[in-house]
Amino acid sequence: MSDYTIWHNPKCSTSRFVLQALQDAGADVAVRDYQQQPPSADELRDALKRLGIGPRDLLRRRNTPFDDLGLGDPALSDDALIAAMADHPAVIERPVVFGPTGARLCRPKETVFDLLSA
C-alpha cells in the first residue's frame, strides 16, 4: 500500500510538479488519473470530508464544462455538484493528494510541502 495517493492529470503542470515533489521526497505514491478512473460519488464525499471543504471548493472552472453544466447555479445542492463531478471528472480541481497526515488540494502547488512536513 502506498503512503500517498494523488488524483493526477498528467497534462497539468501543477499536477506534474506535485507528483515530482512527492517522488523527490521519497514518498511511495499511487497515481490515479482521475479523468481516466473517475472517483465515484461516495469517493468524492469521502475526499471532501478528508479535505474539510465543500463541493464548490473542489470545482474547476477553467477549461472545463463547468459553465455548460450550469455548475455556477447557487441553487444546486451538494449532492447535485458531487454527481456532476462523478459524471464529468474534468470539473474536479487538481491535484488532490491523500497521505498519512491528511489530504490537500494542492493549489497552489507548494501546498504539497505542507502535507509532506506534517
UniProtKB/TrEMBL annotation:
EC number: 1.20.4.1
Pfam families: ArsC
Transmembrane domains' residue ranges: none
SUPFAM superfamilies from the UniProt entry: Thioredoxin-like
Organism in which the protein naturally occurs: Paracoccus fontiphilus
Domain of life: Bacteria
Catalytic activity: [glutaredoxin]-dithiol + arsenate + glutathione + H(+) = glutathionyl-S-S-[glutaredoxin] + arsenite + H2O
This protein's name: Arsenate reductase
